[in-house]
Write a structure and sequence with these properties.
The structure is a single chain. The chain starts with about 20 loop residues before the first helix and ends in an 8-residue tail after the last helix. Strands 1-4 form a two-stranded parallel ribbon. The chain has 2 domains: about 35 residues, no CATH class; about 140 residues, Alpha-Beta Complex (Nitrile Hydratase, Chain A). Helix content is about 45%, strand content about 10%. The chain is an alpha/beta fold. Helix 3 packs across helix 4 and helix 8 packs across helix 9.
């Protein structure tokens, strides 16, 4: 790369995001300032919520999966009402309904949002760019096995693939099948095997 394209730090220059505010950005600023002015909230409370959102990572979901693998009563509660079960662990996804779907030897589940990028962020953090892409959103519904193969997941011919479409008020989390040979591992060690993609359904847990 020519040196005139590098900054003094040696990194490529990036254009400044110095463009006029969009309509929605102006609305957000106006609403935020109005709520603060009326005493409904404070700037510190808003910043605290932003920091809490930034702290969400797939480790949250991994803790849920590991508990489901080790605690039969929790697994039963999770499959019956995932919103309430995860709320009991301190992960509140708000008013949206959370549904847990379980992978078995017979069934493999995948999550997609065909309309936009609805995603259980409280459990998995920010969605990857490919999850939001038009190609993933459309192809996963039409040819899920081919998409899985591109992620390196080859399923036996007899395994049923079920694709679950998230919506504005409903989210899914995949509970992957527990890897063989993990009987002696505790919940923390099991959680380390759970990947983000395995909770979307485009991957499998790590092997011990």
């Amino acid at each position: 790369m020519p040196h005139d394209h590098l900054s003094p730090s040696g990194h490529p220059y990036r254009p400044d995001q110095d463009h006029p505010l969009t309509y929605w950005q102006q609305m957000e600023i106006a609403l935020r300032e109005l709520l603060i002015e009326k005493g409904v909230t404070t700037a510190a409370e808003i910043q605290s919520q932003i920091e809490a959102m930034d702290a969400r990572t797939p480790a949250n979901g991994a803790a849920v999966v590991a508990r489901a693998w080790t605690d039969p009563s929790f697994r039963e509660a999770l499959m019956a009402d995932a919103s309430e079960a995860t709320r009991g662990m301190g992960f509140d996804i708000g008013p949206m309904r959370l549904i847990a779907v379980e992978n078995t030897a017979e069934v493999h589940n995948m999550i997609v949002c065909t309309l936009c990028s609805c995603y259980p962020r409280n459990l998995l953090g920010l969605p990857p760019d490919w999850y939001k892409s038009r190609a993933y959103r459309s192809r996963t519904v039409r040819e899920p096995r081919k998409v899985l193969a591109e992620f390196g997941v080859e399923l036996p011919p007899g395994t049923t693939v079920r694709v679950h479409d998230s919506t504005a008020d409903m989210r899914y989390i995949v509970i992957p099948a527990r890897p063989a040979g993990t009987e002696g591992l505790d919940a923390a060690a099991l959680a380390a095997l759970v990947t983000r993609d395995s909770m979307i359904g485009t991957g499998l847990p790590r092997q011990p």
